[in-house]
Structure formats: structure tokens, C-alpha cells
Amino acid sequence: MANKGATILTFCIMAAAVAVLIATRQWPRDAAQFPTGIALFVCGMAVINFLTSWPGNNKEHAGKTMDLQLAAEADPARADRNTITIFLWILGFLLCIFLCGFPLASLLFIFLYLRLEGREGWRVCVGMTATAGLFLYLLYMLALKTSFRSGWLLEWLRNYLAASN
Amino acid sequence: MLDSLQEGLLLLFHAKPFLYMLLGVFIGFWVGILPGIGGSATLAIMLPFIYRMTPQEGIPFLLGMHSVVQTTGDITSVLFGIPGEPTTVATIMDGYPMAKKGEAGRALGAALMSSLVGAIIGAIVLVVAIPLVKPLILACGSPEMLMVIIIGLTSIAGLSSKDGRGLTAGLLAGGFGLLCAMVGEAPQTGTLRLTFGQMALWNGIPLVPAIIGIFTIPEIVDLKVRGTSIAGNLSPEKLSSGVMEGIRDTFRHGWLVIRCSLIGSWIGFLPGLGGAVSQWIAYGHAVQSSRTKEERAGFGKGDVRGVLGPGAANNSKEGAGLIPTIAFGIPATGSMSILLSGLIILGLAPGPDMLTKHLALTFSMAWTIALANIITVAVSLLFINHFARLTLIRGNLLIPVIVFLCFLGAYGTENRMGDLLVMVAFGFLGYWMLRAGLPRPPFIIGLLLGEPAETYLALSTQLYGFNWLFRPGVVILMLLAVAVVLYPMLSGWRMQKVPHGK
What we know:
The complex is a heterodimer.
Chain A: H1 2-24, H2 29-52, H3 76-100, H4 102-117, H5 122-143, H6 152-164
Helix pairs in contact in A: 1-2, 3-4, 4-5
Chain B: H1 2-12, H2 15-33, H3 39-46, H4 55-80, H5 90-100, H6 104-129, H7 133-139, H8 142-159, H9 164-180, E1 184-185, E2 192-193, H10 207-226, H11 236-240, H12 243-252, H13 254-269, H14 275-288, H15 293-297, H16 305-328, H17 334-345, H18 352-355, H19 359-389, H20 395-414, H21 417-436, H22 440-464, H23 472-497
Antiparallel strand pairs in B: 1-2
Helix pairs in contact in B: 1-19, 2-4, 2-19, 3-4, 3-17, 4-5, 4-6, 4-16, 4-17, 4-19, 5-6, 5-16, 6-12, 6-13, 6-16, 6-19, 8-9, 8-14, 8-22, 8-23, 9-22, 10-20, 10-21, 10-22, 13-14, 13-16, 14-16, 20-21
């Protein structure tokens, strides 16, 4: 899996570098020089990495990079399921922010995650959601005056109600 | 000069300035811990409050707040893998794995003590550099700045894996980071590059959301996959028992801490490089200083030196960053430019007056940095056991809070919805890079240094043609860059020569 993932990622990076090389043809010389040099370098490195990460070529590399090591002891099927689940929650939260606005989406996300995914009791769910809401309101909205845009859904609803009145 | 130094300390010990400093430290403490509330933004928010203060009160307030943000930012980085500040990302690399191994106390002890040492060294650099500052600043033109950036880029070699494949992967990741840094307006011509018609990308990829995404989302996924608390199923006693060990580590690796503090001071002193760079160069240096293959393999998996290096560097840059700000009115970083506005509001004009007429006040800044960090570290050490126990909270309770803080951090910097998309996109990229064995630190170094590298290269060539390559400062720095590249190769060769077990 690591090798397959490395091959696909390397291919994507190489494709991005080639796209940059094509794009530089439309830029003035001064603006194009540096990106051209970098893109050529990336293409070269990608070719070398592409060859060395070809599936079955270098199995020893996994786990040797100087970076976080992902949990290896978990059951792979369960790990994949959990990975997809958490990414879906993150994407759902993002979508919810665009639809309902940041403050409401945050409260919904924390409550629903704790209740549905964490299977926590009502007290914990309500308590933590209320604490997060209070933190957001007092620090960001009241003290720091952060402006949160209302979501598309709420804006549509507001416009709809205004039009119907 | 000694009289002024003493007077500077006495200025700080008047009741009102001291209380204002404590208030600043209190605010800075929480600003550092909470992701997304940046030190610069808080400085800007606090500016209106200093209008009625005297310089003796306003400076301790602003500087007390600003100088401790990095210190407490390390706490969040170690405990949750979320950068409390953009300048504390490198601490995650080894601090968070230590927390996962149940060594949160040791990592926090090391981070706090190295931060304190770094801050004190930064303050000393400020005091010592004041008489020497003019020739030093004038000696640094755009070619020398470019060479410092190249030294930063060469640290990619040190931050990649030790085998040949790892080096290629590191260089590929670094190159990709440089490529991403090309997004936005070209520095020379103003041409829009790779913006896809999005105005949000005119200034390039927003760094804070990108950094939060690439480092934190993979950690969240990992926490979910493991299904335990951050520290697994360890006993609370084990967690907090290593605090003294972490403090001892700082002195055990004292020479490394001093070297990284000096690296931080140097980067902080140079205008335009930004605080986020110094931590990575220091981290790269810590990695390169490992003597054996086994030692080197420990980095990224919880080596205390990976905490000590960045911890010292990101604090020492504050004192040094004040040098060009107060001496010439050239702010070294974004936050220094806000601090400069603060000085002007307080009626102080940066320049020769700060080094002559207001010398005692200038020295009081160095004292404030040192004292504010001593207070913060002392208070943090009192509560460190409680902090460490946070790593025992169940993952299911922590995940929604961490995700919420990440989104808040990404949004809170510029208040733009587009930044949330950037954070999630970089989160996916970070996770994919981890799965594919591409290291993330070189990518971040490329992303941070791409734009200044292009700017200084263009400036150097326009001003000096190719003659800039022969300037004495450039030659010295070039040799240093070559040494940085060759050192890991030579040490690798030496390690191969030494038979196993010796």
C-alpha cells in the first residue's frame, strides 16, 4: 500500500510540475525563471522517486522517513474504516460550516460527534458542546470581535423569509 | 552601559510596569496555548490599550505578552500535536511522539526549559549586539540573505531519511513545497501565478491553515485509528514523572541548546525571514548533530533533542528580532512591525535615540523578555503534571475538540472561509505524504522559503549581476551551506566505517 500510494503521489507531483512548466510559457521571463528551475528539479526528483518507489522495488523504505509513524498495530481493515470515518466527519464539518456558518456548525459537530461516533452520554455531550459554545462566544465573538459569516443555508432562509414577508 | 543595564532592570521593578508586565504575560500565556490566536494578532488588538500608558508601562505590557507566546505554544504542540503558534510546529515532530510514548512530562520539561534558555540567550544577544548592530546590519545585503535561505534549504538534506531513497523523497517533498510557494503574485513583475482566478491565492498559499492541516489532521486520523488516548494506556504517574528528566536533558544537551539559540538569534536578527524558519533550521541542526545511525533514526519518533532545538530557537529569535526594529525601525517579522507601531504610539522613535537617550529603556526590553519567560516557565512547571494528564483523556472526547480548534485556528487568522478549504486540502496531502513515505518537514521548509528565495535571488542579480557570488559574506555563508550538506554525508560514511556494536 505504501509503495502504491508513493507511486501515485509521485506521479501527481510530477504532473503538477509539468503543469507549472506549461503555465510558465505564458508568464514574463522574470516571473517564469524561478518556477521553471524548481519545476524541472521536481520533475527530476519525481522520476528518480518514481523509479525507486515502483511497487515491489523498495520495500525497506516504509517507516524510515523522519516523520510521524502511523499506528501499525491496528487491524488494517479497521484502520481503513476509521480513517474514512474521520475524514468524512471532517468533510461533513466543513460542509456544515459553509451551510450553517461557523458557530452553529461547531456546536452541531461537537454534539453529533460525541453522541454518534463517541457514544458518550447526554450529559457529556451537552456539557462539552455548551463549553465549546461559551468559549467561542466569549473569546472569539465578544472579546476578539471575530466576524463569522452566516452560512449559505441560513442566508437563503433569511432571504426567503424576507421575500415572503 | 552597565549603569543603563542596571537602570533598565530598575525601571521594570516599579509597581505599575511590573503589574503591566504580569498582565501581558497572563494574556500571552493563553494566546500561546490556544491555536489560531496568533501573537501578532493579539499585539494588534492590544495596541489601543497602550495609548494612555507611559513607555515604561507600555513596553513591559506588549513585550511581556509577545515574548511568552512561543513558550506556551510548545505546550499545545507537545500535548495535542496542534501548533499553538505557527512558530512552534517543529516541536510537534518529536514532542508529540514523546507524549504518545507517555513522556509528555519529560517533553514539556525539556520544551519549557530550552525555551527559557533560548529566551535568555536572545536577551543577552540583544544587550551585546547593541554596540555592534550597525556594521552587522549593513553587512547583510540581499546576497547574504539569499545565502542564509540556502542554508535553510540545505537543512532539507538533514531532515530527510538517512538512506538514498529517503534523501530523494526529502528533496522531492522540499521541491514540491517550493513549487507550492510559487502560487500568488510574482515578487518582481506582479504576474499572477497559479492562482486559478482565486483572489484568495493572490498572496500565496495561506501558511497557518496549511501548516495546521498538514501536521494536525494526520495526527487526528492516527488518534482515531488507535482508538485510545494520546498517551495510550499508560499510568498517570509515568506521565508526569519525567519533568525533571526533561529539565536535566536541557543541560545534558546544553551545547546543542546554545547552538540552536544562536541559530534562532541569527535568523531573528535578519529582517524578512520570519520566525517560522528558525525552528526548522534548528531542528535540522539537531538532527544533523546525531552521531550514530541509531541516534538519527530516533528523530521523528520522540527524541528529546528534537524538542530542545526548536524550543530554544523560537524563543531566542525574539530578543534578536528587536535589534533591527529598535535600532533602524526595520521590523524583522510581522509581529515586530506591530511592536514597532506600539513604540511609535508610546512616543518612541526607533533609531539612534533608542541606543543613546533611551538606552535604559532598550535594556529594559531585554530584562522583560528574560523575566517574562522565567515567570511563565515557573508557572507552567507548577501545572505541568495537570497538563501532562490531558494526554490521558479518551480519544473520542478529544477528537471533536481538536478538530474544532484546528478549524478555529485556520479561520481565526484571516477570517476567510477559503482558509478552511486550504486546511482540509493540506490535511489530506499531509496524510497522503505520511502513507507514501514523503517527509512533511522538507515540504514546509520549501513552502516557507520559496518566496524569499526568489525575491532575494532576483534582487541580488539585479543589483550586482553575478558578482554577488564573490562577496566575502556570501563566500563564508556558501562554505557553511556546503558544510551543512556534507556533514550528514561524512558522518554517514564514518558510521558505515565503524563496525556494529562499537
